[in-house]
Write a structure and sequence with these properties.
Helices cover 63% and strands 0% of the residues. It has 169 residues and is mainly alpha-helical. Helix 2 crosses helix 3 and helix 3 packs antiparallel against helix 4.
Length: 169
C-alpha cells in the first residue's frame, strides 16, 4: 500500500471514532425527562438487592424485607427532595451493604467500571499494531520469479496426466 493511499484512509477512521465517541457521550449523558414518583421508586428498587433472597432485586422480590424497603423508598421519594443516589445510600446504610447491586462509581470500586474499558482499548491497540506489522511483513507485489512459478503451475495443471505414476494391471 502506498503512503498516499494510507493518508487518504485515515480521515475516515478518525471520523468514525469521533462519531462513536459522540454517540457514547450522548447516550450516557442525556436526560430522560421528568419522571413520576412511581417510576423513581421502580428504578431505585431495581438497583437494590433483596437482603434475604439470592439473586433477586427489591423490585422482583415479594419478601417482607423487600416490601419494607420499597415502602421506605416510596416514603423517601414522596417526602424528601433526595436524589436517587442519596436514597440508595440511605437504604444501604439502613439495611446493610448487601443490598447494593451496582458498585460505586468512585474509589476502589470504580475499577469495576474502568478496567473492562481499558482492557478493550488495549486489545484494540494491540490488534492494530499486530495487523500493521503483519501487513508490512507481507510482500504483496509479485516479481518476475513469482509470475514464472504461477505460469508453470497453470501449465502443469492443464497438461494431461502421464503414465509414470500409474501401475499397469
Amino acid at each position: 500500500m502506498s503512503r498516499s493511499s494510507a493518508l487518504k484512509r485515515w480521515p475516515g477512521w478518525v471520523l468514525l471514532v469521533l462519531v462513536v465517541a459522540g454517540f457514547l457521550a450522548f447516550g450516557t449523558t442525556r436526560d430522560a425527562g421528568a419522571r413520576t414518583p412511581e417510576e423513581r421508586v421502580e428504578e431505585i428498587s431495581r438497583q437494590l438487592a433483596c437482603p434475604v433472597c439470592n439473586g433477586e432485586t427489591v423490585y422482583e422480590s415479594r419478601n417482607t424485607s423487600s416490601t419494607s424497603i420499597r415502602a421506605e423508598i416510596k416514603a423517601q421519594v414522596t417526602n424528601t427532595d433526595s436524589t436517587d443516589d442519596e436514597i440508595i445510600a440511605f437504604i444501604v446504610q439502613q439495611f446493610g451493604a448487601d443490598t447494593q447491586l451496582l458498585p460505586k462509581a468512585s474509589g476502589f470500586e470504580s475499577l469495576v467500571w474502568v478496567l473492562p474499558s481499558v482492557a478493550l482499548v488495549c486489545a484494540g491497540v494491540g490488534l492494530f499494531f499486530s495487523f500493521r506489522k503483519w501487513q508490512r511483513n507481507v510482500d504483496t507485489i509479485p516479481d518476475d520469479e513469482d509470475r514464472a512459478l504461477v505460469e508453470a503451475a497453470l501449465v502443469a495443471a492443464d497438461a494431461p496426466p502421464t503414465a509414470e505414476g500409474v501401475d499397469e494391471p
